């Protein structure tokens, strides 16, 4: 319980100057299904070409299933995003993130993840309008080779975001 309270305190600490976004979504790949909810803190960084470069920190809790097996994933990750035409109503964007993750079980169906400590990476494209956004992304969860076997989980996901 102490660890959970510490994690909540750390995740609520980012600056009040950040733009926050609630993200919910889900996806599937290689027989797995996953659902996630998270919070992102985004900071405008600098103009670049016809757009705006943004950096931030994301946190997430995900539930993965493979048949009757399931596991919980908790992640914290730095991220970067590039929004095209940030002053228009519709803003296309691309993003990428990678960071540490913890999982509740090292097996998910036939996949052996070998360690509770993993790396969560993602890259995708999306479209924002006002406070709302939709994104499609590729995700990969693996231990990065720190322990064998390193079978990992790959998935394609759709997500909805609400900035506040």
UniProtKB/TrEMBL annotation:
Keywords, ordered alphabetically: Signal
Keyword Signal in record: yes
Gene3D superfamilies found in the cross-reference section: 2.40.160.20
Organism domain of life: Bacteria
Signal peptide start and end residues: 1-18
Any Pfam family the entry gives: PagL
Coiled coil regions in record: none
Name recorded for this polypeptide: Lipid A deacylase PagL
